Amino acid sequence: MNILVYTQCFAPKLGGIESVMTNIASQAAILGHNVKVLADGSKYFSSKFDNNQKFEIHRFDQLKFLRKRIKSNFANNLFKDNNFDKVFFDSWKSLESFDKNIPIKKICLIHGNEILNLKKVDRILSSLKKADGIIFNSLYTQKLFFKNLKKLHNQKYKIIYPAFIKSIETPNSKKKYDLCTVARLEYRKGHHLVLESLSLLKNNHKLILKYAILGNGPELSRLKDLVMKYNLIKQVSFIDENIKPSRIYNESKIHIMPTITTPDSVEGFGISNIEAAAFGLPCIVSDSGGTPESINKNGKIVKENNIKDLTMSVIDVLNNLDKLSKKSHQMAKKFENIKKIKEYLDSF
Known about the structure:
Elements: E1 2-7, H1 16-30, E2 34-40, H2 43-51, E3 56-60, H3 64-81, E4 86-89, H4 92-96, E5 105-110, H5 121-128, E6 133-136, H6 139-148, E7 157-159, E8 177-182, H7 191-205, E9 211-214, H8 220-229, E10 236-239, H9 245-250, E11 252-257, H10 271-277, E12 283-286, E13 299-302, H11 307-318, H12 321-332, H13 337-345
Helix pairs in contact: 1-13, 7-11, 10-12
C-alpha cells in the first residue's frame, strides 16, 4: 500500500498528536508499506531524526501563510508521479488546504482541542466534507464533535484509541519514585493538583512520597513555585525533557494525570497512561474529557478537581500495586504496535 501522512505535528517534536502521526508512518513502513510524510517543522532541527527513518520525510518551515500553500502545491505535484492509496491527516486544519478532487482515500483524525473553537465551525465542516473517513481518538471526542457541530451527512467515522506499544515491560522492583506524570506542562494536565495532594498526604497521612514530573511547557514556573509553597522540594523532581519517558516509567510505581477541562482545552484521550501501563504502572486519572477511556480497571478514576478524592485514590492504589500492575499489563497488550497500526490501515 502507498501511504501519505500529511501533518503539522510530527517527531522529533514531542506530544500526543506527534506520537500518533509518527507511529502511523513508522509502523506502516515496518510492515513493508511505501510511506511518505509531508510535515511542518524545521529541516535543520529534524535532520538527524529524519535521516534515520525508513521512509521519506519532507519538511516545510516557511511562514504559516506561505507554508500551507507551498505544502499543498508540493503534494499536488507528488500525486502526478505517485499512486497513493490513503492519506492520513492530523486534523481538519491540514485537510483544509488539500484539493478535494484528488481521487485518493482521505482519512482525517480528530483529537479534541481543535474542534473546541465554535467560531470556526463553518471552516471545520467545510474541511471535513473532503474526508472519506474520520477517526476520533475517543468516544468522548466523538460525542463532543456531534454536540458542537452538526453531523456530517454520508460521512464515515470510527473510534481508534491512539496509543502504540512497542513491548510489555517487566516492572523494575527498585523504584525511585512513587508517582510520575509524563505530559506537557499545561494547566489541564493537573500537575498542580498532584502537588496539593502530596502536601495533604504528608501533613494528614504522614506519607512522604516522591514525585517525578517529565515534560516542558508554560506551567513549569508556576509548578516550581507550588513546590516551594507546599514545602515539597525534597519530594518533587523536574526531569529534563530529553530523558526518555521509558526510564521514568521504569523507575516509578504509579502514573498520575488528573486532567481538567477548560473552555479552550480538553484531554481527548491520554496516551501516556497506556505507555505507563506497558511498564506495569497503575494509573490515576480524572473523569475529565476522554481520559477515563485510557484506563480499564488498572487504576482509579477520580472526580475532576477533587483533591480529597485524588488523595485517597493515591493511598488506595499504593495498597493494591501488585494486582493493579497485572491489570495494567493486560490493558497495554491491546495497544501493541502490530494490532494498532492494522486498525488505522484497515479503516474505511
